[in-house]
Structures are given as structure tokens and as C-alpha cells.
Design goal:
Elements: H1 12-24, E1 28-32, H2 39-46, E2 54-62, E3 69-77, H3 84-90, E4 95-98, H4 101-108, E5 124-128, E6 137-144, E7 147-152, H5 153-160, E8 163-164
């Protein structure tokens, strides 16, 4: 079942993303396709290798004190998985796990399955695995399940200013 919110035309996150891309003269393309949130299937619909897909996972890192948390937007190649131990170590945490769905959707402005690899909320720390950045172009859902972006990797790095660290397994 596809969440209705992901099909709104346009979502606030989609508008903000497009504003950033258009305002920067970035090298990008919009790809319309069947609604899909699963990375491998979306890669197939868009016609590229899964390794070029930016798989975005919102991770909650618990620090030493039980009430201290850091929220991380972990971005890995679509054919890889987030290594929670690596994310935990990167942020000096005691534990790391997927953020609960409501928190992830609130902090990203996107419904599950179409989170974009941009951290527009100051409380969200963007970390990208370097293996994603070896490609000339990356692909990701554009805050909607039925629309994606193909973006030049150099432009992605310049616009998103991610922390680059090995977080995939």
C-alpha cells in the first residue's frame, strides 16, 4: 500500500528540493515512474544500477545518557545496507538503530520510502558513504514515490555538504 501523503502534488519537501536544485543550476533530471519506495525496484524502474541509488535511512544514535540522542540521515549505495555499528562509532554513541517512523517523517519532511539525501532540518546530521560518490550520477526518490531525481554527484556533494564516512556494509 502506498501512503497517500507521498503522492501529494507537490509536497513541501519536494518543493524545497526543486528550489535548491533550480537555484543552483545543478545538473539534474526529473524521472516520473510508477510509485515505488523499495530501492532495488525503484532502480529498475529508473533504469540504473542499484549501486547508484541513494538509499536514505534515518538513524537514531543514543549517546551515553539515555536522553541524549543524535538523529542521522545515513545514505548508502542502494545495493548496500547501513552498518549501525559504524554510525554509532562515528557519533560516539552507545547504541544506534532506525529512528521510529513518525520521527523520521517529521525530521525529513518525507514519508517512509521516499526520504531525500538532503538534511534541511538542523537537527539532522547527513552522512554519506563514499562508495555512493564514485558514480558520475546518483538517483533518489524526490520526496515522492512516483518521482525521482538523477543528479550529478559533484553537484550533490556541493549542495548537500555531507559528512563522508564509510557507513555501509
Amino acid at each position: 500500500m502506498i501512503p497517500e501523503k507521498s503522492m501529494e502534488m507537490p509536497t513541501a519537501a519536494f518543493r524545497r528540493l526543486m528550489s535548491v536544485l533550480d537555484g543552483s543550476f545543478a545538473d539534474y533530471r526529473v524521472i516520473d515512474h510508477e510509485a515505488e519506495g523499495r530501492t532495488l525496484r525503484a532502480s529498475d524502474l529508473r533504469g540504473h544500477e542499484p549501486a547508484q541509488a541513494a538509499k536514505c535511512m534515518v538513524v537514531q544514535v543514543r549517546r551515553k545518557a539515555p536522553t541524549e540522542h543524535v538523529t542521522v540521515l545515513a545514505v548508502v549505495p542502494g545495493d548496500r545496507r547501513v552498518d549501525f555499528k559504524k554510525v554509532r562509532r562515528l557519533f560516539g554513541g552507545a547504541d544506534a538503530s532506525l529512528a521510529d517512523r513518525a520521527h523520521a517523517e517529521r525530521i525529513t519532511g518525507c514519508v517512509s520510502g521516499c526520504v531525500i539525501p538532503f538534511a534541511f532540518d538542523p537537527g539532522l546530521h547527513l552522512v554519506v558513504d563514499p562508495e555512493l560518490l564514485v558514480h558520475d550520477e546518483i538517483y533518489f526518490n524526490a520526496a515522492r514515490l512516483d518521482r525521482s531525481i538523477a543528479l550529478g554527484t559533484e553537484h550533490f556533494v556541493a549542495l548537500s555538504e555531507p559528512r563522508v564516512a564509510p557507513i555501509a556494509r
